[in-house]
Structure prediction request, 385 residues.
Amino acid sequence: LLTRILKQYGALKDILSNVLSLDYLGGLAGSLLFPILLYPLMGRMLTSLVIGAVNIAIALLIIIKISYNNKKKYDILVPLISLIVLITLSVNSNIFTNIIKKRYYDDVIFSKRSKYQEILLTRSDDDFRLFLDGALQFSSYDEHRYHEMLIFPVLALTRAQKKQVLLLGGGDGLAVRELLKDPTVAGITVIELDGEIIKLAKTNSSLKRLNQNALLNPKVTIFVQDAYHYLMNSNKKYDIIIADFPDPHDETIAKLYTIEFYMMVRRALHNDGFFVTQSTSPYFATKAFWCIHKTLSAVFPTVTPYHIYIPSFGDWGFNIAGKRKYILHKKTYSFKPVKYFSKNSFFNALYFTKDIKKVPTKINNFNRPLLYQYYLEGWKHKVEN
Prediction:
């Protein structure tokens, strides 16, 4: 269409050059407008409707502007009706968004679109659940299993008597709640990208009761910024670093599981320091789990994989990495109060059955985020089966 419009202005060579230039400029504008303006201001539903309406409107203008001798009535009628439908849906997008939210079986007690994601908190009797962009982050019935096994093993391994802890993610305050159970934890620095999550964890009565007002504790310092950026620019050293990130379901989050990121983590640890990261499901995404393990092993001398069963999620995995070589001992891992964690539950978690045993993978790096592909392949295969 652009070629036909521009054919009266010069030779074919120049026309094609101009068309390609406009195509590249359009691609650049779209790639900038979507993450910076459209998605943050309008969300997924309204953005898709508006973009669809704009495309149909342009098509309608072209049909009207370019005169064809054999033009039929429905040439204008079809795009006109489509445009009216999309404009109607756009004006009433909140209604349709609320209809979609009814797919959650529980009552929605909080809903807000932040700059980064859709935040939803639901309740069913005493079960509170947090969803980010539709993905379940925790259920209050069993989140203690996840958070105790994320926090206590690395606390037990660390020798420091006045532990300085860096928590990357975990803005809901649940991991901080577990850290505060250890009196040797002297300070906790929380790095959370989304300030709305921090605000929710500090002000929502349901979440405050669940995290026991952990984020208001004087030991806790909070920075609202990107974890990658923080590590890149910080010179502070920590005894423990904990990564409580979402699963690597896209290339942006996958950068937080790269060898480059883990090298920055290692630099931020004391010589006797330890790092632990949630590592997705070794059952549903086996290659992704072992890819995280292999990537960590390229940076740290000793890496320990372990996994547990969480009813809301299924089999879930973690990896502990030490800056020095270490040996696990069945010493007393004493933390109170706990609901699930014990030395026996931790050592049982070290065993992997045949169907989730270690598989060969490549290292995940910034230029080639293979982890993202492993993750999608794994979940797709399990769901189809």
Notes: The CA atoms of residues 61 and 67 lie 11 Å apart. The longest strand covers residues 269-278. The two ends are 45 Å apart (CA to CA).
